[in-house]
Amino acid sequence: MALNRSKIISSGLIAIALIVVASILGKSWRKSHTSHQTIAITGLGQKDFKSDLIVWNATFSRSAKTLADANRFIKEDINQVKGFLTKKGITENEITFATVRINRDYKSLYNNEGNVVGNEFEGFTLIQQVIIESKNLDVVEKMAGEIGDLIEKGIEFSANEPDYYFTKLKDLKIELLKQATDDAFVRAQTIAENAKSDVGNLKNASMGVFQITGQNSNEDYSWGGSFNTKAKYKTASITVKLEFDL
Questions:
Q1: Superfamily designation of domain 37-50+168-245
Q2: Domain ranges (residues) in the chain
């Protein structure tokens, strides 16, 4: 009887020991295999702004039988164009006259059947480019609408639409990145609260492409980033993707 009782006690102790070990191992497994949940959110930073720099390009040309005459004519035109621009409020340091381009002019010769049989030299055409770069947008825009005055003087003047830029893009990008980051964090908090959870540490962060489009336009975003130069009023935007622990 004593032997059986001893066996029963030993078996009970072994069973208790096994239960304790199993409990410890179970807790250890659960701790090392805790479900690791995260949340990934995209935030948007966006701002409308007005360009603060205008760049306006135009060309004018003169043709003559000799290079000397063409050069003399183009110099006279340069003086007239410069006078016109300064009279309209453009300062001299905002005006750049590029190097003159020289073209040789030929006319085609035809036979009685209408086929081209050769070329005949007619003279030279000199093409002058003028570039205006200014922060006085209104002044340049007003001047651009009055270039008919130059054409009336016999100057073959041709202008492109102006380009508009913003000189403080670096500061704008930083502002938008902060805005996009704050937006993403608020979104993450909202989702976590509704899911009865809390936002943990930041795990990953990535920045999207910087986009500049015309304000209130239907321009498409580009994978490489849009950079509108034709609109005076623009919209800049950037996205930030953040991943948090929950």
A1: Protein of unknown function (DUF541), domain 1 (3.30.110.170)
A2: 1-34, 37-50+168-245, 55-162
Query: Based on the number of CB atoms within 10 Å of its own CB, is 82 exposed (0-12), middle (13-18) or buried (19 or more)?
Result: middle
Which is nearest to 185 in space by CA: 225, 102, 141, 242? 242
- The residues, ordered by sequence, that sit 6+ positions from 151 with a Cβ below 8 Å of its Cβ are 157
Tens-digit pLDDT profile for the chain (246 aa)?
Answer: 554 555 555 555 555 554 554 455 555 544 444 456 888 999 999 999 999 999 999 999 999 999 999 999 999 999 999 999 999 999 999 999 999 999 999 999 898 888 888 899 999 999 999 999 999 999 999 999 999 999 898 898 899 899 999 999 999 999 999 999 999 999 999 988 888 888 888 899 999 989 999 998 888 777 778 899 999 999 999 999 999 888
Q: What pLDDT sits at residue 29?
A: 46
111: Cα separation from own chain's centroid: 56
- Tell me the backbone φ, ψ of residue 73, rounded to 5 degrees: -65, -45
Closest CA to 54 of 151, 152, 161, 126: 161
Q: Is the pTM of the predicted complex or chain greater than 0.85? A: no
Task: Copy the structure tokens of residue 39.
Answer: 């949340």
- Can you name the CATH fold of 55-162? Alpha-Beta Plaits (3.30.70)
Q: Do 37-50+168-245 and 55-162 have matching folds?
A: no
Phi, psi (5° rounding) for residue 155? Answer: -90, 125
